[in-house]
Amino acid sequence: MASTAPTLWQSSCWSRLLRQSRQQRTCMRCLSTALATTPSQSLPPPLPRLRSPFRILNDTTHTSPKKIKTYPPPPSHRAKHPFPVADWQAYHLKELDPSGSRTRLFDRDNPDVPNVGDILLVTFKTGDPFAGVCLVIKRRGVDTGILLRNKVLLVGVEMWVKIYSPNVGAIEVVKRAEKRARRGKLYYMRKPKHDKGSVEKEVEEYLKRRRLIRSGALGVKDPLKSAKNPSSSRSGVGAR
Predict the structure, then answer these.
(1) What are phi and psi of 28, to 5 degrees?
(2) Taking a C-beta distance cutoff of 8 angstroms, is the pair 129, 123 a contact?
(3) pTM for the full model?
């Protein structure tokens, strides 16, 4: 059996192949030059380019300007309401408090304005009334509210009351604080050391005195009835 030995090519074989390829290229170049014809004749002029019927950008018949209908700009709300937040607050205050009594009650210029530390009684249109010590008075326009704290069954209860809420019927001052608080927020009254406890006794005394005033037993004019009947207030006779 004959052995398959690898075929070895000498480097001279590659040089010979390259030389032959160069010679063949030279012959082909000579043949192409010898068989070249006479100078090429001039080509015919190109055909005129047909104009598309859908392209009228350069058409002279459509150069007249087209009138476009314009509309005036919409009215500017910024010119009508330069201060939108203040206008929004005034609109809702007029709707929620048409008489302005609640705004005057918590006005800082009012001498009878409730302060923190006072005991307030809030009556609701639906639900039981709630009384407590005023811890915070937050004046935020329509979002104005007060934080009341009371003890119910030996458990501290707090309630935020929005004074402009339609569910609030009346806000009354049951008892003024003995001294004016040095702080604007009495959160320290949540601690057992400073907790005032239940205010049921103060509320009962206030309601009892109010009933006596309205009945005329104490001989004191009822401010609500006097405001409704000015003739009786001038005569000094309590209205029944």
Answers:
(1) -65, -40
(2) yes
(3) 0.59
Greatest alpha-carbon span in the chain: 152
Write out the DSSP string of 71-93: -PPPPPHHHH-SSHHHHHHHHHH
Residue whose C-alpha is closest to residue 185's, from 139, 153, 222: 139
d(CA 234, CA 223): 12
Please, which residues have CB within 8 angstroms of residue 81's CB and are 6 or more apart in sequence?
Answer: 87
DSSP 142-198: GG-EEEEEEEETTEEEEEEEETT-TTEEEEEEEE--SS--SSSB-GGGGSTTT----
Q: Per-residue confidence of the chain (240 residues) as pLDDT tens digits? A: 455 555 555 555 666 666 667 666 666 655 555 555 555 556 677 776 666 655 555 555 556 677 888 889 888 888 888 898 999 999 999 999 999 999 999 999 999 899 999 999 999 998 899 999 999 999 998 999 999 999 998 899 999 999 999 999 999 999 998 888 888 899 999 999 999 889 999 999 999 998 888 887 766 666 555 555 544 333 343 333
Q: Residue 151: which region, alpha, beta or left (left: phi > 0; alpha: psi -120 to 50)?
A: beta
Three-state DSSP class for 12? helix
Q: How far is CA 95 from CA 89, 98, 106, 207, in A?
A: 10, 6, 18, 31
In whole angstroms, give the CA distance from residue 142 to residue 168: 14
